[in-house]
Amino acid sequence: MEGDECSFPPDSSDDHSLRGSVASSATLSRAQDVLIYLFGDSAVHLTLEGLGTVTVQELGRNVREALHTPESVQDVFAFWLCSPLLELQLKTRHQPYKLCRQWHDLLYRFTEASEEDISQDEPCLQYRRSVFYPKSKELQIQEEGVLRLLYEEARSNILTGRYPCDPEHWTSLGALSIALDEGTSLDSQQFTTTIREKKLSSYLPAHVTMGSGGLFSTLRGKSSRQVGLEQNLFKEYSKICTSAGSSPEPTQLLHQYLNTCHTLPYYGCAFFFGEIDKPAQGILQRGKRKAVNIGICLEGVYVMDVKEKHVLLGLRFSELSWDHSYPEEEGDSHILWLEFDGDEDGTPVNKLLKIYSKQAELMSGFIEFCVELKSASEGAAAAEVDGEVSLSQQPGGQEERSKNGRGGRRGMLHRQGSVVCSRVQSLNTISYVDDGKEIKRLKPKRAASFFARQASAVSYSAVQTESLEQG
Fold it and tell me: Where is this region: Disordered (predicted)?
């Protein structure tokens, strides 16, 4: 998330926002050691003077010099303040030291963490991919060092399940990682030995290698499952060796890995934490919620099931409208509202998904910023293509943009069995129709008797409500 999409609370050095690991103001004028963390268990060690006033822009120059990367790729990466509770992408004018001093305030404002967890939380400064760098430009990069930084970050997101992917994806990506680590000349026996020394979890997502089910089923099926995963990996590895040759350039394999990741629509997203309502399965199971990750990038918004590692809802900006609401009473939640088109028994309806999160305000501002940025870049590209042709001479193009804009009719979602695709049917959404005069919410008709086990098909009727949040 972008660091100042919403205003931060004022700096307060006398209360819980002071970080214990940050130098006191009396020593800031002297040279201080700073660690900038990278993906892949490495870090850049810098010694800086005037730490309290050092900006992200200045840090960037120092890190690029230490990593020997050219200035031409400065837009690829950004500095992030990260912890298990919150992630912030910083802007070039930000001063990381001052934001560290406000870290507790930010956690109180934007997370549901307990006071104890907040008091123990410590952010680290990371150098990682910028959310605003287009995927189309990424594959034009030829510097191996830059590509490896992008690769390590993508690999981490695959292995931790932050990027849900199907078996063909994680098998291909795992085989590419082995080729990058060990070369492309391993035979079957060498391959198996290498895999077992480094463990499958070094190349495949953790939830895949652990499997599902209880402890006994996991132990009983672990051996056979591991053999099957190893065999599939070796088949894919052999294909890579055949197509790439005995000694391919590392950049060739790195590009192939990143290109595969680009097929995942949420690649490069900023991630937020939230909850959604579970579909009611009975009177006693109402009111339960499900933990979700919300990924936002230049293309759209993606809601992912934290436990099951699959996409619940994926919407491009042309397919959604959004808003956020603040708590009205004590105990209420911040809510991000996502509106999109759907159907109920063949009837076109508008659907609303409620995402409960103290980061709702941040997500709403971030979506708006991405929409504006995307519109500006598309406008610049259109102007370059059109040349001197005026918009007044192209009414069809204007009409098409109005259809895809936020105020137009959004495209219907296409769904299938992949973990990448939306599972709208599993969401607890609010369905309604707007006939131009009033908003009518759709609810299923109840059977004549609660105890009657009628086999009749469920139909829907319009129920007028004063507020869509009721019921």
Answer: 385-414
